[in-house]
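Entry type: protein chain
Record version: 2
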Amino acid sequence: MTSERPVREYDLYGRRRGRPLRQGRQRALEELLPELGIELAGEAPLDPSTLFPKAPHDVWLEIGFGGGEHLAWQAVHHPAVGLIGCEPFVNGVARLLSLVAERNLDNVRVLPDDARPLLDRLAPGSIGRAFILFPDPWPKARHHRRRIVSEPVLDRLAAVMREGAELRLATDDMDYLRWMLERLLAHPAFEWMAEGPEDWRARPQDWPATRYEEKALRQGRRPVYLRFRRRGASSGRPEMT
């Protein structure tokens, strides 16, 4: 596998906004984002546990949370865990914030932007679980370098995930599946947790379906669910500073 040329720092592709927001979601965006949004001021390493009113037992990160249903479910079922979500699509941010208000969640924080600036700031070993679920596959060959699952992003994740932390990924695009596996299996900091085919063909019970996944199933596409474990620091590439 050849080394990938990283895209220019923090380039964003795709839409930032969709249809006009419903009144309730617009209100959630205006009222909750100032309170729950993450600001990346300064240059010091960021301890993500300090973002929450009560220090969580662990902090999990979802990159590209879409409509937020998975992240909100995890926040409800793991109240002692702090959940951080990154999503540049404003409509998705508004939908998540409406779920936060509806379910009275106090363990969710949001970066309404690309995840990479946050990955650059997080303290080493500060994330206990990370999710990249149904990212845009960018199917045209000339757009493959836009894919979020890449060597540079995996290096950043390896730096901020603690030993034993779990990285969960899902896709319904078989070309992207091969791309993911090629990069993850070659990365020294991650090991595949699958012991048999059903470990990646069946979604675990603590992994709720997303709207995108349900759409894929209706259209006859079968998603794949990947789980990787962060190896000990000595087996990975040098920690990023």
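Comment: The first helix runs from residue 23 to 36.
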